[in-house]
Design the sequence.
């Protein structure tokens, strides 16, 4: 296709504002998929993505559209990952297209992810077409929301298209706007191949599939390509486009988006943002801005049943095949036995992987406290990265400990502002900004990532009854007074419960943890002290009293079925417990003990 008849775009939106539904309507309206084959949320393929309404891998679809001017266009939609954990991937896929549809729910207005995503689009120099969705709903207020887009984002929304992705109203106008308002890509056919590696994933039949955007030159089956960052060379086996299923084509030219396969063994060999050129007579300079994404949140994953360690290893290796940003290495814990220390791009990424291990691979897991990466400056001048509080060096050898900080943006209705400010303040936040966007406040805070990784988002949702939206970006490292706090159960340290904490917050956290654990650990035939300690010094203590009689004695009278049920429940519960010394600790204790409420 000649460049003038190509349009490449992405859709940016806050979660639930209708991005997937709109994509479905565009696919349907352009008859890319026959009506009888149309199923909902065509681009969100993985179950977990569908359930949580997030996209993790960039999906793409090529639409063919005959515009009102009688010309035939190729429209490439890249559905970018929709979450802050994947910000780098989002920024790369944004660079692969020239424009964005900014979808805002006209019953809700601009939210935190609307802002985060649209700023990415603006950074990538996109032409932006505002689309006001859900106009079929009575609460729709297009005028107000258009005004808000102008006030808060600062782009012209006078020509915003009013649509209902549900009923199909306005979809034709969206397609026309793509053709008339978005620029055609530029590029040179006769130049050496220069393509961006937008994303990659593992396909059980084809091996690694690579999503590419051609900048210059062309890419054909049989070409020998070179990845400029990794230096690896591969012969191309297949070239194709997504309609939305894979369809082979002879070649991809400038401005086009498609896929290749090239007997690449693992996704680790394909770095998002890398530049692909030909082995010989390649382009000179790679595309700017490449940096590999690195894990920022670490936690230990251990099987509840130590016999499942091999199953866990297999499952983790399978998942890692498809996810280059997820790292894992074997870990042994005195208390938990064999497991893995895993690194993630963020909390959601962690949850997604943990859910998949439990659901798809049916492995019961103990997840240890998530920890961020600390930079430890030693007195001897060396720098160490701490991924696991258990590896904390002797404090007398430490000069300073630096922790990662974030800039968090929260949009919240005025009524809940006080609670949000208190929450941020409690988490060692520093307020940077407070402005109003319509009837809602927009607060910007500098926060330690450590205070956010655990349950910040849950707390935010609960104090604002779900009305707040939240987004963050990492800003850098800063030194603070940080210490390692240990938990001792029956005088024995449980390393999986060790956390890094600010010294001023240690007593509060420690007390909360031992109180929680007292409720979570079942009573035994002996007394169990539960303590929090820093170094050798105990800062909080609870005692779980000994069990005097058989539990079933609690049952009134002789209700036999009730008694049986209780015993069964105990048995099932037993499966999910691990022994520490002489004490059984249930699986949920590891996570629940850390929640602050
Ligand atoms: P995404 O998270 O941005 O991909 O949002 P979805 O496309 O999954 O939509 C979120 C919810 O809003 C779903 O329940 C959709 O059915 C619904 N929805 C999307 N567009 C419309 C619309 O135009 N009108 C109405 N009434 N509901 C819509
Ligand atoms: Mg979606």
Sequence:
């Amino acid at each position: 296709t000649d460049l003038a008849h190509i349009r490449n775009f992405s859709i940016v939106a806050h979660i639930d504002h209708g991005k997937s539904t709109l994509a479905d309507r565009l696919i349907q309206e352009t008859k890319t998929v026959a009506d009888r084959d149309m199923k909902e949320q065509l681009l969100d393929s993985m179950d977990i993505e569908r359930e949580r309404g997030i996209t993790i891998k960039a999906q793409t679809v090529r639409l063919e559209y005959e515009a009102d001017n009688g010309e035939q266009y190729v429209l490439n939609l890249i559905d970018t990952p929709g979450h802050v954990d994947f910000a780098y991937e989002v920024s790369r896929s944004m660079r692969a297209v020239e424009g964005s549809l900014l979808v805002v729910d006209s019953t809700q207005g601009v939210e935190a992810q609307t802002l985060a995503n649209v700023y990415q689009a603006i950074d990538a120099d996109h032409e932006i077409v505002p689309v006001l969705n859900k106009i079929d709903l009575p609460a729709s207020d297009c005028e107000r929301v258009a005004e808000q887009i102008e006030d808060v984002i600062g782009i012209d929304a006078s020509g915003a298209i009013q649509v209902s992705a549900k009923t199909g109203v306005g979809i034709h106008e969206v397609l026309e706007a793509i053709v008339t308002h978005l620029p055609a890509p530029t590029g040179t056919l006769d130049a050496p191949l220069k393509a961006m590696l937008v994303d990659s994933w593992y396909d059980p039949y084809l091996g690694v599939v690579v999503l590419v955007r051609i900048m210059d030159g062309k890419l054909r089956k049989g070409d020998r390509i070179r990845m400029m960052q990794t230096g690896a060379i591969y012969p191309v086996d297949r070239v194709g486009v997504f309609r939305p299923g894979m369809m082979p084509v002879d070649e991809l030219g400038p401005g086009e988006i498609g896929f290749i396969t090239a007997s690449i063994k693992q996704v680790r060999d394909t770095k998002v943002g890398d530049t692909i050129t030909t082995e010989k007579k390649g382009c000179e300079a790679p595309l700017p801005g490449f940096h590999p994404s690195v894990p920022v949140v670490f936690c230990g994953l251990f099987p509840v049943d130590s016999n499942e360690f091999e199953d866990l290893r297999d499952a983790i290796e399978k998942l890692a095949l498809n996810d280059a940003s997820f790292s894992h290495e074997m870990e042994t814990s005195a208390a938990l036995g064999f497991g893995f220390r895993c690194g993630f791009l963020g909390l959601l990424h962690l949850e997604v992987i943990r859910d998949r291990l439990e659901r798809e691979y049916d492995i019961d897991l103990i997840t240890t406290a998530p920890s961020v990466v600390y930079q430890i400056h030693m007195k001897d001048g060396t720098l160490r990265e701490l991924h696991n509080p258990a590896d904390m060096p002797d404090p007398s050898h430490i000069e300073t400990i630096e922790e990662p900080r974030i800039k968090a943006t929260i949009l919240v209705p005025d009524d809940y502002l006080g609670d949000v400010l208190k929450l941020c303040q409690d988490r060692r936040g520093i307020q940077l900004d407070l402005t109003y966007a319509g009837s809602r406040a927009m607060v910007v805070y500098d926060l330690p990532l450590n205070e956010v990784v655990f349950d910040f988002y849950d707390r935010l949702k609960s104090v604002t009854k779900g009305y707040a939206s939240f987004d963050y970006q990492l800003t850098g490292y800063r030194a603070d007074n940080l210490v390692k706090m240990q938990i001792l159960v029956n005088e024995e340290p449980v390393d999986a419960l060790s956390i890094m904490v600010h010294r001023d917050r240690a007593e509060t956290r420690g007390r909360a943890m031992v109180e929680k654990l007292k409720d979570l650990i079942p009573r035994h035939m002996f007394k169990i002290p539960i303590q929090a300690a820093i170094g050798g010094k105990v800062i909080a203590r609870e005692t779980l009293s000994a069990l005097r009689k058989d539990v079933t004695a609690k049952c009134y009278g002789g209700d036999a079925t009730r008694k049986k049920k209780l015993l069964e429940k105990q048995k099932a519960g037993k499966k999910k417990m691990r022994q520490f010394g002489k004490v059984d600790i249930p699986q949920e204790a590891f996570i629940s003990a850390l929640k602050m409420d």
